[in-house]
Amino acid sequence: MGYKSTDIKSIVAEILEAKRDKGGIKSLYFVGCGGSLGALYPAKTFMEKESASIKSAWINSNEFVHCTPNDFGENSILVMACHKGNTPETIQAAKLGKEKGAAVIILTWLEESEIVEFGDYIVLYSFDASQDHLAGDIDYAGEKTLCALYVAVELLAQTQEGYKNYDKFYEGAGMITNIIRNARTHVKERAKIFAKARKNDSVIYTMGSGASYGAAYMESICIFMEMQWLDSSSIHTGEFFHGPFEITDANRPFVIQISEGSTRSLDERALIFLQKYAKNIEILDAKELGLSVIDVSVVDYFNHSLFNNVYPIYNHELATIRQHPLATRRYMWKVEY
Amino acid sequence: MGYKSTDIKSIVAEILEAKRDKGGIKSLYFVGCGGSLGALYPAKTFMEKESASIKSAWINSNEFVHCTPNDFGENSILVMACHKGNTPETIQAAKLGKEKGAAVIILTWLEESEIVEFGDYIVLYSFDASQDHLAGDIDYAGEKTLCALYVAVELLAQTQEGYKNYDKFYEGAGMITNIIRNARTHVKERAKIFAKARKNDSVIYTMGSGASYGAAYMESICIFMEMQWLDSSSIHTGEFFHGPFEITDANRPFVIQISEGSTRSLDERALIFLQKYAKNIEILDAKELGLSVIDVSVVDYFNHSLFNNVYPIYNHELATIRQHPLATRRYMWKVEY
């Protein structure tokens, strides 16, 4: 098969062992397209915050192929997400990784796909495949976002730098599935109210910060734009006051993520403004949704998984009331591009 | 004064000398808010592509203050842009830099401002302050975007890694002012046609890739959203096909940057799609606008400056025909936030 599916701690150990006499691992690249790129965002912020010496970047697959970092090679780990294993740009990036001698870890949902032959390690992540995204009985700790984080956590922990919050991190991972399940139940009624109120809108903004900005990005591009054909943008709550906030009025709707952890005050500041000048605000508050039981030293990195799995409850209601099923496409997989 | 204004090559040399016995420089952080953050984007991509060993990140000021990278300290350079030197979040970040012993370089337009006391080095950049952004007689090589790039270029060149395209880079910098002046003249008539066509629109998207994505971001948040109150988002041309392109129709307008250099094929692919399914497309093509005289090894990094200085011609016409002056604000500097 040319690949093995095993757990991420062992994968990282095996890579470090194999690279020991070749200069070790000096860089970690997170590469993907659209939602698969967005899902890697928390791992990017983890490296920026926690690692002093390992270079890291978060890059769209096609950009990575055409504008490859000079140092990318046998001292690099390439982590890619590719849902069905058939995204051409991501396959190209994986091939490039092979050619350059990088250790290529592919996070995918399908065991049998085109991309797997170009990965040194294939990690099959968990995913809620139910059409309405409402089943909610999956292991959320096994999703791609957390798999990418595990690579970062393990790399740091198993190298010279170390990661002092290692145990707390896995404690958090052990709690996330229950938190998400409860949160999804918790928002069920308000999701219906949201959908009814937003039924005739043509634009919806998402907002967020820190490690969970990726969830705001994914909701904006994959759901509102792709699956509902709504105008949208994901606004960073720290950037809001330096341009975007001038569009705020009584009509424009915002979905704002209030993270738990270090960037919460950025989100709260944006919310206070919205509550003064906007009328249509949907608040996803990680504290209210139960995330605070995770230790403060690591909670930042779990916001994304929480928000990303609460959104489907809203999406289901919105698609239903708008009579625009989430699976509807006019271009994707239908025309040449 | 507590700061000196000198040239960037000397600044970097002085920092490296001062840090020689303290472990040297290991990280370079680009920090700012809104347009001042967007302007630092090319320097971020430069570090990602060209540097193997110096850690770099591009972070909103308020996020940087609340979620500071663990390694940030005396082995770091902090480069910040702050136009009038009075952005509270950026001042906080500068203070933090001082406290932590980082070398703080502040790029600003005003010599006398609140922030300068927190900078070890103050770089006064050039800026076209004419209300209508049409004077165009400034030294574009002295703008903040290029000043940030000079820091990155010098840091690489003066440390172990070296930068083999150093001479080509400065050759390009020597050409950019004339290129931009010609390009601004070149788009004058089409900017009027664009403005007339877009007069009654409520949404305009910008698109771009690579080092010039920052210019698309700035145009979207600082002009269309902030100064024209239009719905907008900056779409990465490599991400376009993984979600956003589903909003494409005959009505929605796009301004697309076709970069010269390594990511050009991403932009061209998006353009081909737009030309098939959209009707309102404004193309800013760096090749047509004269950027190709800059050497291919460094041309990527000059796209942003070109696009960012061609946009004002369009902005002026759009603001005029919409009778919505660019200086109009409803919240910024007017209400508490």
From TrEMBL, chains A, B:
GO terms for biological process: fructose 6-phosphate metabolic process; protein N-linked glycosylation; UDP-N-acetylglucosamine metabolic process. Pfam families: SIS. GO terms for molecular function: carbohydrate derivative binding; glutamine-fructose-6-phosphate transaminase (isomerizing) activity; isomerase activity. It comes from the Bacteria. Signal peptide: none annotated. Residues 12-162 form the SIS domain. CDD domains: SIS_1. Keywords: Isomerase. This is Phosphosugar isomerase.
